[in-house]
Amino acid sequence: MPKRDFTPVRLLLVCALLAGANMVLYSRAAERTPAMRQAQAQHAPLVAVSQAGERLVAVGDYGVVALSEGGQDWRQARVVPVDTLLTAVSFADAQNGWAVGHGGVLLHTSDAGENWTLQQRLEDKPVLLSVWFENTRHGIVTGAYGYASETQDGGQSWQRLSLGANDDDYHLNHIFCAPDGSLFIAAEGGNAYRSRDNGVTWETLHTGVSGSLWSGITLRDGRVLLAGMSGRVLLSEDRGDSWRELDSGSQEAITALIQLVDGRVVVVGNGGLVSVADAELKHFSSAIREDRVNLSALLAVDDDQLTLFSPQGVLHQRLSSRQ
Q1: In the list 59, 60, 96, 291, which could disulfide-bond 46, CB 3.0-4.6 Å?
Q2: Which domain holds residue 49?
Q3: Which residues are paired to 143 by β-bridges?
């Protein structure tokens, strides 16, 4: 497989966009070439991961979709009809999932990721960065230059969403859902958006920062976290009405975060960053992997073992006792 410089996809996107608004970000997105076959799927550049029941489904460059039943052994999906960069994946149930990527690519699977069909190339072929499906009918995708679109029929048709004034100025990096049904979008330039009516209307949230936000999660108690450039972690304890910045103990860009069963929060990012916060988010214990690889996604096997995703593929890391 040819080697390419690979940074977490959102950073790669921003660098490309800044090089020129008319630049073709990924020329192969227009081709109908199937995914590149990998001898070892776990070593392919992987960007995002989701769960289809007990199965792990990771997506990445060259159209690779990697599957695992427990996180140790990985294999490649049988059929993926594109070889473009896939940036995000979401499952509505144990069988039905959607993956998105460059060139407006929207893929669908109805068999837990074994086989994928090209359901859509969305109009204007936007660079898609995130996908969320509430169920097998309703879903939302977000992407570069404020692109957001919604389906009510399982991805067969899509309608553009407007997030508000100047919403086409910012890249919409990550959409996620809170336990109460509220939707949040982490965006470029310190911007964030919230919908309290299942995506019908959106409001701009005032985070108080200007650096780009790459990812976010809602904790089980309803608190909301956003994370992004320069090690920034923002906390809201009132479901997005107000925010305060936490000391993450790092200046590395944070690309993904999860909450463990015991309540602790783990964030990962560029330069091999793996940082763990206590359940009260009062202290972060940061560590840097020896390989300093850029990390783009993670899942927890248990409260001490992490599965990480990177340009080098799947990595495993046990949290140290001090974390």
Answers
A1: 60
A2: 9-318
A3: 128
